C-alpha cells in the first residue's frame, strides 16, 4: 500500500466557471487556469501520481501544451487512473479538504462524490470531501483563491 498527497490552488476571477470535483457551481467567480482549473481534481491527480511514484500533474499534463487548454479535469483523472492501474495500483480511499470562502458548497458535495467515485471506479463511501473556509484570512478568506488538498491510499 502507498499513500499520496496532492495540493492545488488557483486564483478566482470573474468571467470563469467554477468547477470543483467535476461539478460546475453557481458562482460569481471561477478559477483561473489552463484547463478547467478544478483544484479538487488536480489535487487528486497529484495524490495518485505521488502515491504511485510516477511524477506530478504538471509533468504529465503541462500547462504549455495546447492539448490541455480548457480540458475538463475528469479527463485528467481518468488518464491518471488508467496510468496507475498499468503500474498495478488501485484506489482504496480518498480524503479531500476543499478551501473556499464562497460559495458554500455543501449542496454540491453528494454530486461531487458521485462523479469522483465513478471516475476512480470506487464506491462512494471511499470518497470523502470536507469543505473548509479560512475565516476571512488570507487570499482564500478574501475570496481571491480556491484550494484543495487530497490524501489517497493505493494498493497493489
Helix/strand layout:
Layout lengths: L1 E13 L3 E3 L2 E3 L3 E3 L7 H14 L4 H4 L12 H14 L3 E10 L9 H12 L6 E6 L5 H4 L3 E11 L1
Parallel strand pairs: 5-6
Antiparallel strand pairs: 1-4, 1-7, 2-3, 5-7
Helix pairs in contact: 1-3, 3-4
CATH topology (fold) name: 60s Ribosomal Protein L30, Chain: A
Report, as a whole number of angstroms, the end-to-end distance.
7 Å
Shape: globular
Unreliable spans: none
Residue-averaged pLDDT: 95
Strand residues, percent: 25-35%
Largest sheet: 5 strands, mixed
Biggest sheet, spatial arrangement of strands: 4-1-7-5-6
Structural class: alpha+beta
Textual characterization of the structure:
The protein is globular, with a radius of gyration of 15 Å. Strands 4-1-7-5-6 form a five-stranded mixed beta sheet. It is α+β, with helices and mostly antiparallel strands. α1 packs parallel to α3 and α3 (73-86) packs parallel to α4. The model has no long low-confidence stretch (mean pLDDT 95). The chain has five helices and seven strands. It has a single domain (2-155), classed as 2-Layer Sandwich (60s Ribosomal Protein L30, Chain: A).
Amino acid at each position: 500500500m502507498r499513500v499520496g498527497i496532492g495540493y492545488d490552488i488557483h486564483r478566482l476571477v470573474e468571467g470563469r466557471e467554477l468547477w470543483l470535483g467535476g461539478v460546475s457551481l453557481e458562482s460569481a467567480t471561477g478559477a483561473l487556469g489552463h484547463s478547467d482549473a478544478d483544484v479538487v481534481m488536480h489535487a487528486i491527480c497529484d495524490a495518485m501520481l505521488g502515491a504511485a511514484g510516477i511524477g506530478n500533474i504538471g509533468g504529465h499534463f503541462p500547462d504549455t501544451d495546447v492539448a490541455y487548454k480548457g480540458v475538463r479535469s475528469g479527463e485528467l483523472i481518468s488518464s491518471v487512473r488508467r496510468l496507475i492501474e498499468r503500474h498495478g495500483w488501485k484506489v482504496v480511499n480518498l480524503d479531500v479538504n476543499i478551501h473556499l470562502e464562497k460559495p458554500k458548497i455543501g449542496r454540491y458535495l453528494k454530486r461531487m462524490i458521485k462523479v469522483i467515485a465513478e471516475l476512480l471506479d470506487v464506491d462512494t463511501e471511499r470518497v470523502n470531501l470536507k469543505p473548509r473556509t479560512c475565516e476571512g484570512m488570507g487570499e482564500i478568506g478574501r475570496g481571491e483563491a480556491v484550494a484543495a488538498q487530497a490524501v489517497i491510499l493505493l494498493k497493489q
